[in-house]
UniProtKB/TrEMBL annotation:
GO term, biological process aspect, one: methylamine metabolic process
Listed name of the protein: Methylamine utilization protein MauE
GO annotations of cellular component type: membrane
Organism name: Kribbella voronezhensis
Regions crossing the membrane: 6-24, 44-63, 69-89, 117-139, 145-164
Keyword flag Hydrolase: no
Subcellular location per the Swiss-Prot or TrEMBL entry: Membrane
Keyword Transmembrane helix: yes
Ranges of residues in domain Methylamine utilisation protein MauE: 1-127
InterPro entries on file: Methylamine_util_MauE
Membrane topology: Multi-pass membrane protein
Key words of the record: Membrane, Transmembrane, Transmembrane helix
Length: 177
């Protein structure tokens, strides 16, 4: 079961690390998207954008260092993102998502689904950690081959979740124009 935690850690580190890097690479675009969302006053959009990048970077760094702290941090951030998306959907805001840089994909239910999947993965990683702490077991039972396999599986999952918008678009019937 500890391998689930390792896979979760690898996946969430890669996803949050990639999100922070792509936002930094197109920071002006990300700042504009935060302003467009209207969740914070315009004058604070830059601060909010920088704060999001800093928190995502912190999650990406914390997850491999401490599974419990990092996974709980990811879970809290994903919950905030889901609440923000729900508020925007209820308001009828049709802004683009700059979750992984400038994509132009409109923010919507697919982002709730992706963030829900990420939150479920964080919870899945926390359960074995909590059970191991309760049973007094440690990470010493992990085998190197199992850890490598878990990290590889986590990175594949991260790649799929980073490309989630494109995958949804690929498998969604298009409307004729």
């Amino acid at each position: 079961m500890e391998y689930l935690t390792v896979a979760s850690q690898a996946l969430l580190t890669a996803v949050f690390g990639w999100a922070a890097v792509t936002k930094l690479r197109a920071f002006a675009t990300f700042r504009r998207s935060v302003r467009t969302l209207g969740l914070v006053p315009d004058r604070y959009a830059g601060v909010a954008a920088a704060g999001i990048v800093a928190i995502e970077s912190g999650c990406a760094l914390a997850v491999p260092l401490s599974a419990v702290v990092g996974l709980i941090g990811c879970l809290c951030l994903l919950t905030i993102f889901c609440v923000g998306i729900l508020v925007l959907l209820m308001r009828g805001v049709t802004a683009s998502c700059a979750c992984f840089g400038a994509t132009g994909a409109p923010l919507g239910r697919k982002h709730l689904t992706r963030n829900g999947l990420l939150a479920a993965i964080a919870l899945t990683g926390l359960v074995p950690t909590a059970n191991a702490a309760g049973a007094g077991a440690g990470a010493g039972d992990l085998q190197p081959a199992g850890v490598l396999t878990a990290v590889f599986a986590g990175l594949i999952g991260a790649a799929l979740l980073v490309a989630f918008d494109d995958l949804v678009e690929l498998f969604t019937p298009s409307t004729a124009r």
